Amino acid sequence: MPIIKDGAIVTDTWHHLADDEPVSAAPCTVSLARWKREKSELAAHGGALGLRLSGDDRVEDFAGELDQFPLVVVEFPSMGDGRGFSIARLLRERYDYRGELRARGAFIPDQVFYLRRVGFNAFEFTYDANLQTALPLLNEFSVTYQAAADEPLPLYRRCAR
Amino acid sequence: MYQYDQYDQRLVDERVAQFRSQTRRFLQGELSEDQFRPLRLMNGLYLQRHAPMLRVAIPYGVLSSRQLHKLAEIARRYDKSVAHFTTRQNIQFNWPRLEDVPDILAELATVQMHAIQTSGNCIRNVTSDPLAGVCPDEIEDPRPYCEIIRQWSTLHPEFSYLPRKFKIAVSGARKDRAATQVHDIGLQMVENETGETGFEVLVGGGLGRTPIIGQTIRPFLAKTDLLSYLEAILRVYNRFGRRDNKYKARIKILLKETGIEDFTRRVEAEWVQIRQRLVLDTGEIERVKRHFTAPDYKTVAGPGPDAQAAADPRFAVWLRNNTTPHKIPGYRAVFLSLKACGVPPGDIADTQLDAVADLAERYSFGEVRATHTQNLVFADVHQDDLHELWQRLDSIGLATPNIGKATDMICCPGLDYCSLANASSISVAEDIYSRIDDLDYLHDLGDLRINISGCMNGCAHQSVGHIGILGVDKKGEEWYQLTLGGSSSNDASLGERLGPAIDKAHVAEAVETILQTYIELRQDGESFLDTVRRLGINPFQERVYAHH
Ligand code: HEM
Ligand code: SF4
User: Fold this and answer.
1) What is the pLDDT of residue B196?
2) Which residues of chain A does B121 touch, with a Cβ-Cβ cutoff of 8 Å?
């Protein structure tokens, strides 16, 4: 399925493994729960491995191990569940995660501006969303008051006002 | 007052363009009802009983004459020539068409106004003391901090999809006129031992279904730490607040379920991590403060209003009830009552809005404030202008001398507009009004706050009314639950239930009985609230239910 990554529409090469699905050699993501359970087997699988987080997962508990994942996916079960926004900022700003950070789920194109600001650089809609609509919305506003993952300083420190 | 710079203006302009596109995509079917709902709510747009309702932000209650004229024009063009001031220093239009809303927002943007985050599960319009900057009991003017919070919270990338709505109030005076104890976060300016001013931080207050008084989690917060501390609280809430049940999703429930010690510990632990990164530097505080400098006060005091008051008893009553002391000698703050008999509390006509704008220009440096009791304030009126101003206000129906008195009721729209209502709060208010609308009686009753909500969502703050009236549904009929002894000021408390609900035909009579009982039982000059606190509700209960 196509996704948005780094400001462009690209084909996704990752497969999101269900917790009971056998691991193959292709790049795949697993849930935090599965990864905790099967760490050594998964490490041995040879292909690229990504981690999937839900709103309940506490970033603090596995922050030291983030480096090994080229991709971290944060799940948005609904557009109103905003926990992923905090998780993303923690990953980027506190734990200095530099890999691909992907929002995945039922969020809508109108949220990508906020999602980009908190640190997501990839967007995977789990329904048939219009990616062409979403693309320009990444930069919907040219003014941002706050510091966030995309911008270390608040507006008043960035610009003479 | 604060004037937008290029950044502020560009942001609201871009917001208008955004909402225009969202509305178009919704009307074309590209956005579903469920997807559009949170987007329109974050622009203050509800879909109500008869028509949409648009809630426009009046940041911390401050309006210019130019903005008032624009609101009048909008009321005329897009509504039925009426607007409604709410309990959170906002203004609402009850009859706009959805298709017109982008144009209305564009009109508002031309006068530095918007409807951003006046609804939805985000940080709402920040509220404050309507007498900020002019009251004699002020520790520090809260408005610059309100503006700083407004900017910080506007389109906040992390905190726009919270578990539930989030309300912040700031008070800078010793007397709390901003109801800080019933907000998600209340900031009360205080002075520490070294004479430095900062904030006492309260969390977890709120009205609605589960009214709770906020608790102090930090007795003193330095001003430079304001934003990092707010961010820490919001982050803890956003991560751990309940999302499984919308009635348990407010921060007050998180605080209650976690316990104040544990909650405070989490906030402080988060704060330690971000404190150095998000400093509110004094340069920025000073920049914003420069927008709130004192107007050009006259230094020579004239004769004052005493002689005119002696000659004109109607003026004298108004002067006593509707004006308050000012920190500058020779000036007073003047309340414009939006509680005339027969007018729904908080409602104002387009022509009145225009007239108020002109009067403000002439008598109060072109500025007006909205109060959380649904009235207006001219904050800077010279005493020699009071009599003339009173005559003019009187001629447009805005001089009812009842500020803080029994007929200055806070009342929600109820069945008249609201799809959640059980009760017609406005008609109950009118019924009560007509029974106590005698000036001597009103004066004799003294300070009284009667709040009426049409359902348990509690929009009219009935749980903190001295007398609270709540509409409940009993088998399809309107009944009313009364509470006594609530307050949202420094001595904040929740009212106590008087007894079984009362049917609509007997509510006003019950209120009258309560007031009569107070008059009989009070001790020399004691207020209603003090009498209830001294005696408890029993004597009132006995009288009200004596015949039932
Ligand atoms: C027009 C129809 C309206 C609807 C459908 C409506 C809806 C609601 C709902 C559902 C709540 C409860 C939210 C919660 O507990 O989290 C609420 C609370 C509230 N509303 Fe309204 N409202 C309406 C009009 C108004 C008006 C006109 C005012 C101002 C006069 C107002 C001011 C408030 C306030 C101050 C609260 C209490 C907030 C708190 O919990 O601290 N609302 N409203
Ligand atoms: S208190 Fe209830 S009836 Fe009144 S406006 Fe609020 S939701 Fe509607």
Assistant:
1) 96
2) 80, 82
What CATH superfamily is the domain B410-546?
Sulfite Reductase Hemoprotein, domain 1 (3.30.413.10)
- For residue range A72-81, list pLDDT tens digits in order: 999 999 999 9
- With the most atoms of ligand 2 within 8 angstroms of its CB, the residue from B90, B374, B424, B457 to mutate is B457
pLDDT of res. B547 = 67
The string of DSSP codes covering B339-405 is --TTS-TTEEEHHHHHHHHHHHHHHSTTEEEE-TTS-EEEEEEEGGGHHHHHHHHHHTT---S-TTS
Which residue, B164, B45, B39, is CA-closest to A140? B39
**Which stretches of chain B score pLDDT less than 50?**
none
Nearest protein Cα to ligand 1, atom 12: B457
pLDDT score recorded for residue B476:
87
pLDDT of residue B400: 96
> Closest approach of chain A CAs to the CA of B61, in angstroms?
21
* Most informative mutation of B119, B412, B481 for ligand 2 (most atoms within 8 A of CB): B412
Length of chain A: 161
Residues of A in contact with B238 (CB under 8 A): 82-83, 85-86
| Closest atom of ligand 2 to CA, residue B422 | 3
Atom of ligand 1 nearest to the CA of B92: 27
Nearest CA in chain A to B232: A86
pLDDT the model gives residue B437: 83
Q: Indicate the class that CATH gives domain B134-288.
A: alpha beta
Query: From B150, which residue of chain A is nearest by alpha-carbon distance?
Result: A145
In this complex, do A145 and B155 lie within 8 Å of one another by their Cβ atoms?
yes
- H or E segment at B16? helix B6-27
Closest residue in B to A136 (Cα–Cα) = B18
pLDDT at B324: 97
Mean pLDDT of chain A: 95
**How many separate domains does chain A show?**
1
Q: How far apart are CA B346 and CA B78, in angstroms?
A: 19
Closest ligand 2 atom to Cα of B460: 1
Q: Is B154 on the interface with A (CB under 8 A)?
A: yes
CATH no., domain B306-395: 3.90.480.20
Tokens read off for B55 = 């809630």
For residues A51 and A25, the model is more confident at A51
Amino acid at A44: A
Domain that holds residue A130: 2-158
Domain boundaries defined on chain B: 6-109, 134-288, 306-395, 410-546
Q: How many CB pairs under 8 A join A and B?
A: 100
Determine contact, residues B391/B332, Cβ cutoff 8 Å.
Answer: no
Q: Quick check: helix, strand or coil at residue B464?
A: helix
What is the CATH number for A113? 3.20.20.70
Nearest-Cα residue of chain A relative to residue B157 = A114
Quote the pLDDT of residue B111: 98
Q: Looking at residue B548, what is its pLDDT?
A: 59
Q: Are B5 and A161 within 8 A, CB to CB?
A: yes
| Range B6-109 classified under CATH 3.90.480.20 | yes
Query: For A52-111, what is the HEC assignment?
Result: EECCCCCHHHCHHHHHHCCEEEEEECCCCCCHHHHHHHHHHHHCCCCCEEEEEECCCHHH
B239 touches chain A (CB under 8 A): yes
Q: Which residues in chain B are contacts of A145 at CB distance < 8 A?
A: 7, 11, 151-152, 154-155
The pLDDT assigned to B49 comes to 63
ipTM of this predicted structure: 0.97
- Cβ within 8 Å of residue B244, ≥6 positions away: none
pLDDT digits (tens, 9 = 90+) for B341-390: 989 899 999 999 999 999 999 999 999 999 999 999 999 999 999 999 99
